[in-house]
Amino acid sequence: MKALFNEEAETHGITVRVSVSYLPEQSEPGRGRWFWAYHIRIENHSPVTVQLLTRHWVITDGRGARHSVEGEGVVGEQPLIAPGGSFDYVSGCPLATPAGNMQGTYRMIAEDGATFDVAIPKFALLAPAVAG
Question: What's the pTM value of the predicted model, to 2 decimals?
Answer without folding.
Answer: 0.92
